[in-house]
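Suppose you are handed a protein chain with no further information: no name, no annotation, nothing but its sequence. What can you learn? This example shows the usual starting point.
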Amino acid sequence: MNSGNIVLESVFDIAMTILPFLLAVMVFVCLIRAIKGPRVADRIVAINMMGTMTMVIIAILSVKMNEGYLVDICIIYAMISFLAVTLLTKVYMGVYAERQKKKETEKKLRTEGMKEKKTERNREREREEREEEEVYRKREERGFLLKHGGLQS
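A reasonable first move is to predict its three-dimensional structure. Written in structure tokens, the prediction is:
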């Protein structure tokens, strides 16, 4: 029974030694994701993951070193990380909403411009039609007068 505890403790010590290094590599991978993106949402999630893994590293070190104050630091770090991610998300949502509003405004202006162009084209057509009608009316008038001998040219 005692030998089982020794084996378990040695496995636990090995795991507590390897895990912080593995998590450090994962933090580095998340840092790459936070830099590359491609979207802002990916960057925010990567930053959140980095904070979470940092808290796990601190907790593992707290257990391995048997230091209780590291747990307090981990809790404080969790609160700061939460606030940072919340702030980043709030800023991102504000920027996103502003961009959407700008796109809608530009789209609205484009459609109004297209409507204005259509009305301008319609006015031109109407003017051309009136001119054609006027010319046709004058020709008819002249032709009628020529037929009946009223206009001498």
